[in-house]
Design goal:
The protein is α+β, with helices and mostly antiparallel strands. Among the domains are: 11-45 and 52-147, Mitochondrial Import Receptor Subunit Tom20, Chain A; 231-329, Lipocalin (Beta Barrel), CATH 2.40.128. 18% of the residues lie in helices and 34% in strands. It has 7 helices and 37 strands. β19 (377-382) and β20 form a beta hairpin. α1 packs across α4. The longest helix is centred in the first third of the chain and has 30 residues, at 144-173. The radius of gyration is 29 Å and the shape is globular. The two termini are 36 Å apart. The model is unreliable at 1-52 and 175-212 (pLDDT under 50).
Length: 580
């Protein structure tokens, strides 16, 4: 899915495949492994003892690597690897593959190598545990079994020699034990308060590592279980979610090739009411599941229609009761983003095919395709009903208008992929964020950026403007901009002055989503640390917190501002009720 944005060199993919294949070779040592000249299949032949044959196709290995990259947040790397390895052309049903499948099979491979090391050539088992902290890299080293066994034998010999020497020393020292005891006891007394201790910490405590364990949530801000509804139904990670703008219908999009509409209205049956929107393609005159991720979705302004974009390259329009109204097909690759214009007559989409398209929502026809980017388009946003901006991995931002055959403006200045763009509520300023760790503010009145905001220490994944200031329903409140980064922080910016007013630091993993409440007084943030935090935008203080069961991809507020929806990597969707 587009949604996860971090770049990695293409060699990452090749190294990953090489290591995985190596572990398979060690783990399945009774089988010989070779690649055919075409490289499309890893063939496993049976052993001399006639065990059952095994086969591992490179498509299968590639799919596990692809899913691992997606689950780890390397979406751009996943996209590139998926294109190069032709994942979309494989017949693998991704909905049947459980999360963390690659890690699971690698762990089993390590256990097999550990078992090999534990057994002597004659079939006997070492007395004790022959290895400690066997890593994935250790497991693929040549002769790891022989090396570890030899090291363990030497260690056993040293231990036996030390034990014999210790026994002799103990016997020799037995006569002096009584006189030596007081000194030993004195040395064993713990230091008094204020004295130096191990690692410079009182009582020899270990140094604190914020990433070694989940952060404890303050009981005063923790959302109680009875205020959190967990919606189950998706069979894979849920990348996106969005509230209907006029009612408590929550839409979600998943890697299981479905979108779902959950009814959270007071007169519904709680979280049990869901509509399943299956994304199918025509094959042989029949509709079959596409087995492709639903990567984006957006409600129209009056809440009557839902648009979805999929990795199968199609955009679809659905009614609020779950019926497919039309299918929009002109992209030649996955769709990363799509948006309704305010009027509701056009839909805008961004694709891997380097183009953006304006669609007529009524007829389903493409009004105009804009082929100006030189690499995949990642995000789009409307300035008004006919003008929009788009950004890309080509580091450029184009402002285009329906009916114009060239961009009306091009902004250049980022030095890496541009992940997201957003117009402010007045349509005067455009914000962009990038893997170059900068946040830039642009104006149609000039070619260079108005502000170049540099404070984050890692890639900035997404940005959101507050619904405050001119052209909003909260005109008396100052406008703010929020940025979410892979450095685990969220920053709130005063754009007029170009300064960061608050740095929100409670998350411990990359932050993928931020969303302002309708009145702009609160900000929700979601991170892969499984936490949703609610912040006071004026003070920067944490007011609510919830820990879910999976990494958070998206957070969103309902129209009344009393519920927050969140979608997670374990297939769950949670709804937090913030009413007192």
């Amino acid at each position: 899915a587009r949604s996860l944005s971090v770049s990695a060199p293409s060699c990452v993919h090749r190294d990953a495949v090489t290591q995985i294949q190596a572990v398979f070779q060690h783990s399945l040592s009774t089988f010989s492994c070779r690649l055919t000249e075409g490289g499309s299949r890893i063939v496993k032949t049976s052993s001399p003892r006639g065990e059952a044959k095994m086969s591992i196709t490179s498509d299968e290995v590639n799919f596990l690597v692809y899913r691992y990259l997606q689950e780890s947040g390397f979406s751009h790397s996943a996209f590139t690897f998926g294109i190069e390895s032709h994942i979309s052309q494989s017949n693998i049903n991704g909905t049947l593959v459980p999360p963390a499948a690659l890690i699971s099979i690698l762990q089993k491979g390590l256990q097999y190598v550990e078992a090999e090391i534990s057994i002597n050539e004659d079939g006997t088992v070492f007395d004790g545990r022959p290895i400690e902290s066997l890593s994935l890299i250790d497991a693929v080293m040549p002769d790891v079994v022989q090396t570890r066994q030899q090291a363990f034998r030497e260690k056993l010999a040293q231990q036996q020699a030390s034990a014999a020497a210790a026994a002799a020393a103990a016997a020799a020292a037995a006569a002096t034990t009584a006189t030596a005891a007081p000194t030993a006891v004195a040395q064993q007394h713990p230091p008094k308060n204020g004295e130096a201790t191990v690692n410079g910490e009182e009582n020899g405590a270990h140094a604190i590592n914020n990433h070694s364990k989940p952060m404890e949530i303050d009981g005063d801000v923790e959302i109680p279980p009875n205020k959190a509804t967990v919606l189950r139904g998706h069979e894979s990670e849920v990348f996106i979610c969005a509230w209907n703008p006029v009612s408590d219908l929550l839409a979600s999009g998943s890697g299981d090739s479905t979108a779902r509409i959950w009814n959270l209205n007071e007169n519904s049956n709680g979280g049990s009411t869901q509509l399943v929107l299956r994304h199918c393609i025509r094959e042989g005159g029949h509709d079959v599941p596409s087995n492709k991720d639903v990567t984006s979705l957006d409600w129209n302004s009056d809440g009557t229609l839902l648009a979805t974009g999929s990795y199968d390259g199609f955009a679809r329009i659905w009614t609020e009761d779950g019926n497919l109204a039309s299918t929009l097909g002109q992209h030649k690759g996955p769709i990363f983003a799509l948006k309704w214009n305010k009027k509701g007559n056009y839909i805008l989409s961004a694709g891997v095919d380097k183009t953006t398209i304006i669609w007529d929502a009524h007829t389903g026809e493409a009004k105009q395709q804009f082929p100006f980017h030189s690499a995949p388009a990642l995000d789009v946003d409307w300035q008004n009903n006919t003008t929009f901006a788009s950004c890309s991995t080509d580091m450029c931002i184009h402002v285009c208008r329906l009916g114009c055959d060239r961009p009306v403006k091009t902004f250049q200045g980022h030095t890496n992929e541009v992940n997201a763009i957003k117009w402010d509520p007045s349509g005067m300023l455009l914000a962009s964020c990038s893997d170059d760790m900068t946040l830039k503010i642009w104006s149609m009145k000039q070619d260079t950026c108005v502000h170049d905001l540099q404070a984050h220490s890692k890639e900035i994944y997404t940005i959101k403007w507050s619904p405050t200031g001119p052209a909003t329903s909260n005109p008396n409140s100052n406008i703010m901009l929020a940025s979410a980064s892979f450095d685990s922080t969220v920053r709130l910016w005063d754009v007029e002055r170009g300064v960061c007013v608050h740095t929100l630091t409670k998350h411990q993993e990359p932050v993928y989503s931020v969303a302002f409440s309708p009145d702009g007084k609160y900000l929700a943030s979601g991170s892969f640390d499984k936490c949703v935090h609610i912040w006071n935008t004026q003070s920067g203080s944490l007011v609510h917190s919830y820990r879910g069961t999976g990494g958070i991809f998206e957070v969103c507020w309902n129209a009344r501002g009393d519920k927050v929806g969140a979608s997670a990597s374990d297939g769950s969707v949670c709804v937090l009720d913030l009413r007192k």
